[in-house]
Amino acid sequence: MKAPPFQYHRPQTREELGALLARLDNAKILAGGQSLMPMMNLRVIAPDHLIDINRVANLAGIREAVDGIEIGAMTRQADVLASDLVKSRLPLLTRALEHVGHIQTRARGTIGGSCCHLDPSAEQPAMCAALDAEFVVVGPGGRRVIPAGEWFEGLLQSALGEQEFLEVIRFKPWADGHGYGFAEYARRHGDFAIAGAAALLEAGRDGRITLAALLSFGVEAAPKRLSEAERTLIGQHVDSLNIKPVIAAASALDAMEDVHVTADYRRHLAGVLIRRALNEACTTMRRPS
Amino acid sequence: MSGRFFGAAVTRLEDARLLAGKGQYVDDIDLPGMLHAAFVRASFAHGRIRSIDTGDALAMPGVVAIYTMADFADIAHGPMPPMAPHPLLKTPITYHPLADTEIRHVGEAIAIVLADNRANAEDAAAAVTLDIEYLPAVSDAALACEANSPKTHSQHASNIAATMKAGFGDCAGVFAKADHVLTEHFDIHRGGCHSMECRGVVANIDLLTDALTISTSSQSPYMVRRHLAAYLKRDENDIRVMTPDVGGGFGPKANVYAEEFAVTLAVIKSRRPVKWIEDRQEHFVATTQQRGQTWTLDVAFDNDGRMRAIRGRCIHDNGAYAPYGLILPATALASFPGPYALEALDLSIDVVLTNLVPTSPVRGACRPNVAFLLERLADRVARHLGMDRQEVRRRSFVRADQMPYTTGIKARDGSPISYDSGDYVGALNLVLDKIDATNFEARRNETKRRGKLRGLGIASCVEDTGLGPFEGASVRVTPAGKVIIATGASSQGQGHRTAFAQIAADALGVELEDVTVETADTAKFPLGISTIASRIAVTAGSSVQLAAHKVRAKAIAFASHQLEVGEHDLELDGGAVHVKGIPDMKIKLSEIARTLAGNTGVPLPGDMEPDLAATAYFNSNALTFAYGANACEVEVDPETGDVSVVRYVVVHDCGRLINPLIVDGQIRGGVVHGIGNALFERMIYDEEGQPLTTTYGDYLLPMAFEMPRIEIHHMETPSPRNPIGVKGAGEGGTIPAAACVISAVEDALGPDGPFIALHPISPQHVVTWLDGN
Ligand SMILES: Cc1cc2nc3c(=O)[nH]c(=O)nc-3n(C[C@H](O)[C@H](O)[C@H](O)COP(=O)(O)OP(=O)(O)OC[C@H]3O[C@@H](n4cnc5c(N)ncnc54)[C@H](O)[C@@H]3O)c2cc1C
């Protein structure tokens, strides 16, 4: 369980990083190393070059920008979890982060690393999908912005180009007092979930839903917005939601199977969890009084 | 027996050092000029080696040598000696140090690469070219029994290595007369074993004398020495085996392994020190695993709930080799009839070879399986009769007034097994009281209001401990007045040092800090067996007691001579022998030791034998039987199928407690092991013997978050079979735990739920069962 030989690089600036990515073949970026190092030690991947971005200036940090919240790719999961700003404006993200790994892995692991690695059960990219986040990436052609809807290209596959790196993730918070709900099921606390779900709701003064986001993750190869089901919620009253179409949508996903669970069980969980997430969103929603 | 230390919950002497990172494990050893080894291992489960090309690999950076079995031909050849020959095994089925002509499971070692560091050795191992002819493999023991199955060893006519039988009484007769008979089929999963420290070996050769020094992360240093000496045709004296700090054993490290031989052979060949540290991936494919068995059992019982007889058959998944002979399946037979006073028993076990890593005893060996079978059957009988589960047990258990109780089963040496002492019904009553079983239904209803299902589980067990033949210990007082204990019993973190020091400190009237315990260096004590089977407190603990009392007697004799006081008027205290009631009339132990260490030309007082020291071996000729009753409560989420153990109560009797803290630690760890068996640990292979769960992301060990608080109550029925009245405590936590948890899950699923006859269960099982499937 030792990685095959590789060359180690440690750029200090975005420019140096960009230059290395442009120049080196078969290179991998090292962020928190919590996914990359195990894969290298198990010899699942064998990059010739490792580009450590831990010292690149200003890649980490959480800040309030004019039109939302920006989280630098190198921001540690522990820092996102501890952030009051995130907790008040993006409470769903905070809620989800409690389920990401363990105190030790969150201390090293980064939000950017998780969003680039794209495990199907990873909570952070999933919440990005629920929140319609935008991924700002930098490459030889300069900066481009990839909306969450286009970020996920398949199993462990993002829209990031070979020579690009993820710089920052931009979030547009939902209105104050919006409802948010999260549910996942993992065999043990901190494991990658077998399946998970998230829900976001906004309602008018009359209690009728004006905006909804519903998401299942860990079920298909990439997190999946249940757009049809979202639409069925619009106009319904929070206290008397018809959730049947929501559960039906989750239970109809093209679920993965693996050595541990069947696709049927995953679909069953998807239905249970989306209901729980939606219920929680109804509970956390602050009603105008 | 009572003293200042025996029985006291003193904190462990070893912990300060270990917790401060000052432990010395095999991997901490660094010798000048040491090479690092990596193994080339089989990547599929069965094949015939055509050729091995090491040319490219030898040319890689840092590589010093690569050996295959053929390269050792001038030193030794053939399969390794069997650790426990058994008459039913016509020919031993042991590994070669490196695969000879056939590979028989994924992970079997084929070649050893020596390089300047481990990374380079791994790079080169990946570059060795193997030409191996594919042979069909079998990974399912039941399929392996079929006539047309592929053979695990292509030269064998059958995969059934042995058929073992045990029983007593007139089984057919009792079955014919009993009010009821039920048949059930059980499926108990194999599972792995994951000590925190994997295996590891550092070996060295003395370039002048050729003597070998081997440090290994093992439970059986003396067995490593004995079998290596036999294999190399050398005298045991030329081989020194040490076990430095060992980070957990739990059974698998009791085997003598091919890697221990291969590393040693590589050292002899290269004449360089070599280190091999098993990594976790290797551990998954090369370290022995637990105990996969399927059973079909009939139980005969009466209307009043009394279980009278059991008969049936087992298919035992042995894996590809039997390094430890038939010890593992033998423990299954010897564990019947558990706490049940059966009139008759008739069992047979087919020991079946499969193309998987071998199984060998892991914490409890097959005792947890048997506890699962018996306890599940008792629940089944209760359900059939619509009777209380406890009541079936109360009517079926061996009663306290029947002790000592001869079960009818024979021990390994053919002698009848007899339970020495205990109160099984008393333990059950106590645990039910402690968990407050009377008010369980109220808790069940409260849980139901939260949308969950609650269940109460119970399980009992009896455990044979103190397996013979012996361990030994020497106790010596140094001229500085310090006490040194040496024993052949190796330690893997159990707290032996503390427990032995407690025993000796009482006998010699010294403080714990004055006692040093040296374990497991074959150069420091002549003989040892193995730290297995909950036997060390009984065997080595008793030896320490016997040796320390010899030393005590000698010190008293010396003082009596010097002080001219009768021996009965002397006692030991404060590091000295003094006259009872007159603490100032004393001779310090240090002075006695100094005198008995001798001075040139000065005769010893009273012509005593030199040295304030003694050695003793305790022959453990009759097993001693610990027992326990467990009860737990689970909450089941009917939607996800999640099971969480919310309460766990243990009543345990291992005779006299040397140190309750240490025993509690053993029980807690043991229960966690059992909960892992019940709910989490599943070692999955495909039909071709390819392991599919070889990381901790896929192989789920129980973790702290999922574990309940474990509440422990002790009963102390002294064993009459050893001088300190103890029984073993290393496995009693594990043995009934899986049965207890499964019993609770079944109870939670209610009267319409299934009879659960397998483990581990998964959330998916639970959801399916609740669906009525
Ligand atoms: C025991 C354990 C439990 C875990 N449990 C969970 C869990 O429950 N949920 C969960 O979501 N995750 C879990 N993880 C994974 C963890 O969250 C990782 O931290 C995360 O997947 C990767 O982040 P990282 O910063 O460690 O990235 P790294 O491992 O350093 O990199 C991961 C990948 O992303 C690429 N990369 C990283 N940063 C960038 C960037 N800025 N631009 C371009 N590419 C980049 C790397 O090249 C690599 O391919 C667990 C990990 C462990 C070890």
Write a compact overview of the structure shown.
The complex is a heterodimer of chains A (289) and B (773). Chain A contains twelve helices and 14 strands.
Structural overview:
The complex is a heterodimer of chains A (289) and B (773). Chain A is built from twelve helices and 14 strands. Chain A is of the alpha+beta class. Chain A has three domains: 7-52, 2-Layer Sandwich (Uridine Diphospho-n-acetylenolpyruvylglucosamine Reductase, domain 2), CATH 3.30.43; 62-171, Uridine Diphospho-n-acetylenolpyruvylglucosamine Reductase, domain 3 (2-Layer Sandwich); 179-284, CO dehydrogenase flavoprotein, C-terminal domain (Enolase-like, domain 1, 2-Layer Sandwich), CATH 3.30.390. In chain A, α2 links the parallel β2 and β3. The N and C termini of chain A lie far apart (60 Å). The mean pLDDT of chain A is 97. Chain B is of the alpha+beta class. Chain B folds into three domains: 34-135 and 194-286, Aldehyde Oxidoreductase, domain 3; 293-466 and 623-770, 2-Layer Sandwich (Aldehyde Oxidoreductase, domain 4); 468-619, 2-Layer Sandwich (Aldehyde Oxidoreductase, domain 4). In chain B, the strands form seven sheets. A seven-stranded mixed β-sheet of chain B has the order 3-5-1-12-9-10-11. Chain B is globular. The relative contact order of chain B is 0.13. The chains are: A alpha+beta (289), B alpha+beta (773). The interface between A and B is medium-sized, with 23 and 29 residues. Bound molecules: flavin-adenine dinucleotide. Flavin-adenine dinucleotide binds at residues 28-36, 53, 73, 100-101, 105, 109-110, 112-114, 116-117, 119, 122-124, 160, 165-166, 190-192 of chain A. Flavin-adenine dinucleotide is lined by residues 28-36, 53, 73, 100-101, 105, 109-110, 112-114, 116-117, 119, 122-124, 160, 165-166, 190-192 of chain A.
